[in-house]
C-alpha cells in the first residue's frame, strides 16, 4: 500500500508540473520544453570563479528583507521587535557585511540563524555575537558536530581548499590572523532545530519558520521560511548555482552528502511553493512556476543518478564503468558547473559500499600502486619508453591513460623537461575537455593548480 500511495503522489506531482508547463506554453505562445524556457534549466552563468569578484553591497529582497552580497550572501529581516540575521559571510568580508545589514534595519538583533557550519556562512558570527550578546543563536541539531569536524581538520581542509580557491583561503587566513573573532570553532547555538519538527518563531509582527533540511552541503542544513511572503532562505541547499546538479561530493574534501536526504529536502521545498528563493551565493531567484520546474528537475536528476548507480552495482558493473556511463538524459539536463554527476556517482558508490571495490587484493593494504612505479621504469629500460607510450595515448585521445603513464615515468626521479612538457600537455588537454563538457569549477580549478605547479619543474 505504501508503494501504491507513493506512486500516486508522484503521479499527481508530475501532473501538476506538466500543467504548469502547459500554462507557460499558452502564456508564451510557443511550444516549450524544459531546455528552452525563458531561463534555461540546463545551464547557469555563474561559476565559482565569480566568488572572489563579488563585492559587498546591500540589496532589497522583499518588504523588510535585505541581502548583503559578497563571496556568500547574508540576510537580515526587519520585524517590529528588532531584526533577524541569516548567515554572516566570510571573515575577510564580515565587518563590511555587518555594516551593510545594520544600516538597513532598526532595533536590536534578536536572532542569529545559521544555515550550516561552513566558514563562508558563519565567518562573522562571533563579531555579531560580541555586538549583540543577547541575540539568540539558532542552528541545526548537528551544527556543533559539523563545526567540530571542520575545526579539528581546519589545516587539512585549508590546504585542500587552497588548491581550488587560493585567493579566498588566503584572505580568510589573513583576516583570522588579525582578529581572534574570526578563528573557527567555538560557536554555541542557544536553540537547535531537529530533523523531525520545524521551529516556529514569532518575532514581533513576523512569523518565521526554521526548517531542518540536512542536504545540499551537509547534514546540518537549515532553511528559513517566511510564509507571508513565500520567501525561502535555503543556504547552499539550492546553490551556489540555480538550478544545477548538486555538489553531493566536494573534491576539496568533506563527508559524502546523502542522495536520499537531498531528494527529501527538495520535495519539502517544492511542497512549500516558494515564490522567492534567497540562497547562499549569487542572485535571488524569483517566480513560483520557474522555481518549481527547476526544483523538480533537480530532484528527479538526483533520483535518476541514484537509481542508475544502484542498478549498475546490482548488475556487477565497476565503479569506473558507472562513472563513465551514467549521464543525465536530455529531459533532466542540468548544469554541472559546480556539482558533477561522475563525482557524485563515486560518492554514492562509496557511501553504500565503502572503499573496498573487490577489484584487487592490493586494495586491502597500505601500499599504493605508485610504490612500484620506479620498478616499472627500470623494467621498461628507463622513462623514455614509458614517455613514448604516454605520448601515443595522448595522441590517440586517451589523456587519462597518458597521465597514468607520465606519473609512472616521473617515478624515475629528476624528470626531464620533455616529460614535464608532456605532462603539461596532458593536463591542458584534460582542462580543455572539462571546459567543453561541463566547465566544472572544481575540476578546472584543480587542473589549473596542477598546471601552475609544473612551471619550475620544466627547467633542466
Key attributes of the depicted protein:
disordered N terminus; six-stranded mixed beta sheet; 13% strand; 460 residues; Metallo-beta-lactamase, Chain A; seven-stranded mixed beta sheet; 3 domains; alpha/beta
Q: How are the SSEs ordered, and which strands pair?
A:
Blueprint: H1 2-28, E1 58-62, E2 65-68, E3 74-79, E4 82-86, H2 91-102, E5 109-113, H3 119-122, H4 125-131, E6 136-140, H5 143-152, H6 154-164, H7 166-178, E7 191-193, E8 199-203, E9 206-212, E10 222-226, E11 231-235, H8 259-272, E12 276-279, E13 285-286, H9 288-314, H10 319-325, H11 341-353, H12 373-379, H13 383-395, H14 399-410, H15 417-437, H16 441-453
Parallel strand pairs: 4-5, 5-6, 6-7, 11-12
Antiparallel strand pairs: 1-2, 2-3, 3-4, 8-9, 9-10, 10-11, 12-13
Helix pairs in contact: 6-7, 8-9, 9-11, 10-11, 12-14, 13-14, 13-15, 14-15, 15-16
Main sheet overview: 7 strands, mixed
How far the N terminus sits from the C terminus, by CA atoms, comes to: 72 Å
Assembly state (oligomeric): single chain
Task: Give the mean pLDDT.
Answer: 89
Number of strands: 13
Secondary structural class: alpha/beta
Strand content: 5-15%
What's the alpha carbon Rg, rounded to whole Å? Answer: 24 Å
Shape: globular
Going across the major beta sheet, what is the strand order? 1-2-3-4-5-6-7
Return the domain count: 3
CATH H-level superfamily title of the largest domain? Metallo-beta-lactamase domain
Give me the CATH fold name of the largest domain.
Answer: Metallo-beta-lactamase, Chain A
User: Secondary-structure element sequence?
Assistant: HEEEEHEHHEHHHEEEEEHEEHHHHHHHH
CATH architecture annotation name of the largest domain: 4-Layer Sandwich
Runs with pLDDT <50, length 5+?
1-38
User: How many individual helices?
Assistant: 16
Amino acid at each position: 500500500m505504501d508503494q501504491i500511495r507513493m506512486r500516486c503522489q508522484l503521479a499527481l506531482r508530475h501532473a501538476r508540473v506538466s500543467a504548469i508547463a502547459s500554462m507557460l506554453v499558452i502564456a508564451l505562445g510557443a511550444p516549450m520544453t524544459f531546455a528552452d524556457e525563458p531561463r534555461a534549466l540546463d545551464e547557469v552563468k555563474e561559476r565559482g570563479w565569480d566568488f572572489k569578484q563579488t563585492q559587498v553591497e546591500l540589496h532589497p529582497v522583499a518588504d523588510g528583507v535585505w541581502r548583503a552580497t559578497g563571496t556568500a550572501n547574508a540576510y537580515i529581516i526587519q520585524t517590529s521587535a528588532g531584526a533577524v540575521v541569516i548567515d554572516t559571510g566570510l571573515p575577510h568580508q564580515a565587518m563590511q557585511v555587518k555594516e551593510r545589514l545594520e544600516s538597513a534595519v532598526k532595533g536590536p538583533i534578536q536572532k542569529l540563524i545559521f544555515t550550516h557550519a561552513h566558514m563562508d556562512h558563519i565567518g562573522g558570527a562571533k563579531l555579531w555575537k560580541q555586538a549583540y550578546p543577547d541575540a539568540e543563536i539558532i542552528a541545526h541539531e548537528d551544527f556543533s558536530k559539523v563545526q567540530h569536524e571542520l575545526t579539528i581538520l581546519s589545516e587539512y581542509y585549508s590546504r585542500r581548499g587552497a588548491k581550488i580557491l587560493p585567493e579566498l583561503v588566503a584572505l580568510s587566513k589573513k583576516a583570522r590572523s588579525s582578529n581572534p573573532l574570526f578563528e573557527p570553532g567555538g560557536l554555541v547555538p542557544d536553540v537547535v532545530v531537529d530533523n523531525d519538527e520545524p521551529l516556529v518563531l514569532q518575532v514581533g509582527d513576523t512569523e518565521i519558520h526554521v526548517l531542518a533540511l540536512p542536504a545540499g552541503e551537509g547534514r546540518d542544513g537549515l532553511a528559513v521560511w517566511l510564509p507571508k511572503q513565500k520567501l525561502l532562505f535555503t543556504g547552499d541547499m539550492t546553490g551556489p548555482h540555480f538550478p544545477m546538479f548538486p555538489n553531493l561530493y566536494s573534491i576539496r574534501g568533506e563527508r559524502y552528502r546523502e542522495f536520499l536526504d537531498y531528494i527529501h529536502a527538495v520535495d519539502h521545498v517544492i511542497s512549500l511553493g516558494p515564490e522567492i528563493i534567497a540562497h547562499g551565493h549569487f542572485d535571488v531567484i524569483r517566480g513560483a512556476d520557474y522555481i518549481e520546474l527547476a526544483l523538480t528537475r533537480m530532484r528527479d536528476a538526483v533520483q535518476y543518478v541514484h537509481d542508475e548507480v544502484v542498478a549498475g552495482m546490482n548488475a556487477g558493473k565497476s565503479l569506473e564503468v558507472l562513472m563513465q556511463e551514467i549521464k543525465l538524459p536530455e529531459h533532466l539536463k542540468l548544469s554541472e558547473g559546480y556539482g558533477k554527476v561522475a563525482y557524485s556517482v563515486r560518492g554514492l558508490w562509496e557511501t553504500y559500499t565503502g572503499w573496498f571495490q573487490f577489484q584487487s587484493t592490493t586494495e586491502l593494504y597500505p601500499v599504493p600502486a605508485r610504490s612500484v612505479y620506479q620498478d616499472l621504469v627500470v623494467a621498461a629500460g628507463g622513462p623514455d619508453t614509458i614517455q613514448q607510450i604516454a605520448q601515443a595515448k595522448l595522441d590517440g585521445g586517451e589523456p587519462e591513460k597518458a597521465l597514468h603513464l607520465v606519473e609512472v615515468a616521473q617515478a624515475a626521479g629528476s624528470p626531464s623537461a620533455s616529460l614535464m612538457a608532456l605532462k603539461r600537455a596532458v593536463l591542458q588537454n584534460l582542462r580543455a575537455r572539462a571546459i567543453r563538457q561541463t566547465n566544472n569549477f572544481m575540476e578546472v580549478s584543480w587542473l589549473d593548480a596542477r598546471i601552475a605547479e609544473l612551471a619550475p619543474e620544466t627547467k633542466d
